[in-house]
Write a structure and sequence with these properties.
The structure is a single chain. It contains eleven helices and 16 strands. The protein has 320 residues and is of the alpha/beta class. It has two domains: 144 residues, Alpha-Beta Complex (Quinone Oxidoreductase, Chain A, domain 1); 142 residues, Medium-chain alcohol dehydrogenases, catalytic domain (Quinone Oxidoreductase, Chain A, domain 1), CATH 3.90.180. Helix 8 links the parallel strand 13 and strand 14.
Length: 320
């Protein structure tokens, strides 16, 4: 089969197309014929250790070809989506505990754009963030893949959503998805605008995609018993100060999110919660993952360059 391997260096990400054997599913694994795979900034654009090339693509959607020992409830031809090892390939393996059925109305492209991004968002908004209908949600870098998914999930849950972006055009596009308030900025200077939008009360939950440069500002605008989720560091700033007085006085909660550092059983628990609490919104059409651009399999290098340009709103998908 054809598969892309990625290597990271100080000069960026290099991409190599190789011919490799079709993998064989081990106990608890599912082999799928990949139909689409999604690009993720964390895998492709920095923060990765320099080393030998490895199979690329952390999530995909495809049809079941073969199942390993111990896997039940799945048959050849079933449409699945989930985390995988080497999704930029013609075939890939999924852990059966993390595989999800693709709803009938969801396309291959939309399915491939769902697993990593929306599971992280579920963790932030529902499992840890306890976001309720009528509450205020602030999403920094709202046009990113995680940002758009947080906007869509927040609206489906009945929240009011504020988003920041350095692009007025991107904010305008997201108004069509229900963005209530758009703030054009890339700096930590949005406190006043947020307080004005919330009548001085602040927001109940913040999704911080940007990093340390806006951390203090995010903490400053939280309402009483507000929650702050840190998920990314687009600014490459990994340190920040904490106002301990505000933390104590307002009974604030600060937490981090990263599936990459969780064991399979923990990720599987999040999958079950997502299937129960959020996937029904996909089934009835209230959530449709936003695909900015779709690339052919042989165009993966071009897709990575497009991601590096930071021009997209939502997700980039490669069709296999």
């Amino acid at each position: 089969m054809k598969a892309y391997f990625l290597a990271h260096s100080s000069g960026g990400t290099s991409v190599e197309l190789r011919e490799t054997p079709v993998p064989e599913p081990k106990p608890g694994e599912i082999l799928v014929r990949v139909r689409a795979s999604s690009l993720n900034r964390g895998e492709l654009l920095g923060g990765k250790a320099v080393g030998p090339a490895k199979p690329g693509g952390g999530e995909c959607a495809g049809e079941v070809v073969k199942i390993g020992d111990g896997v039940t409830g799945v048959a050849a031809g079933d449409r699945l989506m989930g985390r995988c090892g080497g999704g930029f390939a013609e075939y890939a393996l999924m852990d059966a505990r993390e595989a999800m059925r693709v709803p009938a109305r969801v396309t291959w492209e939309e399915a491939a754009a769902t697993p990593l991004t929306f599971l992280v968002v579920y963790d932030m908004l529902v499992a840890q963030g306890h976001l309720k209908a009528g509450q205020w949600l602030l999403v920094t870098a709202v046009s990113s893949g995680v940002g758009v998914a947080a906007l869509q999930t927040g609206k489906a849950l009945g929240a009011r959503v504020i988003g920041t972006s350095g692009s007025a055009d991107k904010l305008a596009r997201l108004e069509k998805l229900g963005l209530d308030v758009g703030i054009r900025t890339r700096a930590g200077d949005f406190h006043d605008a947020v307080m004005k939008a919330t009548d001085g009360k602040g927001v109940n939950l913040v999704v911080n995609n940007v990093g340390g440069s806006v951390f203090a500002e995010c903490l400053r605008l939280l309402a009483f018993e507000g929650r702050l989720a840190t998920v990314g560091h687009l600014d490459h700033v990994l340190g920040a100060t904490i106002d301990l007085d505000a933390l104590h006085r307002n009974r604030l909660t600060v937490f981090g999110v990263s599936n990459r550092f969780r064991v399979a059983a923990q990720r599987a628990e999040t999958v079950r919660g997502f299937v129960r609490d959020v996937l029904p919104y996909f089934e009835d059409g209230r959530i449709r993952p936003l695909i900015d651009k779709t690339f052919a399999f042989e165009e993966l290098p071009a897709a990575i360059r497009f991601m590096e340009s930071d021009a997209q709103v939502g997700k980039l998908v490669v069709l296999i």
